[in-house]
Amino acid sequence: MRNIAIAIHGGAGTITKASLTPEQEKAYKAALKEAVELGYKLLQDGKPALDAVEQAVVSLEDNPLFNAGRGSVFTKEGGHEMDAAIMCGQTLEAGAVAGVKGIRNPISLSRAVLQHSDHVMLSGYGAEEFARNHGFAFAPESYFFSSQRYKQWSEVRDSDVFMLDHTEQVDEKYGTVGAVAVDSAGNVAAATSTGGMTNKRYNRIGDTPIIGSGTYANNNTCAVSCTGHGEFFMRAVVAYDVSCLIAYKGYSLQQACDEVVMDKLVQFGGEGGLIAVNAAGEVALPFNSEGMYRASKQNQEETFVGIYREG
């Protein structure tokens, strides 16, 4: 039987032991463990990698600790605009949505775009119309409200400042979520979902839904899901760059990830990290920030869960 593996992230940035209470750390680790093991169970049952990454991300979207789905941050206008993408490494098919409102699980809508449309990315009203046509239920604004999110937004809403979730301006730490997996057939997949930046304006869209920047999967190389300051990840085409180093230069998965995250991104100020897996079942979890919410599980090994640099 081939190796199976899954890895997830819940955001990267200025995440230190001093920034989280013991209770918060426990809650984050429990949420990460639950999500990665839900996805792993599907792989164990012989389900495809696409199912595993979608399920893992749905679990994180449903948890208000993370900046995706229910936990999405507030925009300048006081609403929520979400982005997501999913990609199949076997066929290179992909689906993505950008700037959607009221969708409980944007990653599932992205999967519907992949499976039921001739397009890769839908945005705004059009994506929402597509959702209605395919029976997606819309949640009220109250579903996406949390006092922590509101407090975070209230600190900057009267200014032109936008704020990453992992900034030290706030006590709470949140982040983009993602998953990568390889199934028993050797197929890889990647999925990423986010609520973007607090106080973002002009329908700003980050790297998450852009295939090759925040999300990418190819059986011949790897599957990648990114987290961090999206503008830098777009400019560096990070997810595809990792794949290219493997395809064109023969790098190992870890070498390719380290080259992009620890060298290329750092050179022009890009903060964040990524998760990656290849068809052989190898996993990489590099980040150049203080911390990254992450978890992984390979074959019958124990589940790994980490937050800080040292674990």
From TrEMBL:
Site (Cleavage): G175, T176
Keywords assigned: Autocatalytic cleavage, Hydrolase, Protease
Active site: T176 (nucleophile)
GO molecular function: hydrolase activity, acting on carbon-nitrogen (but not peptide) bonds, in linear amides; peptidase activity
Alphabetical list of SUPFAM superfamilies matching this protein: N-terminal nucleophile aminohydrolases (Ntn hydrolases) (SSF56235)
Superkingdom of source: Bacteria
Record-given protein name: Isoaspartyl peptidase
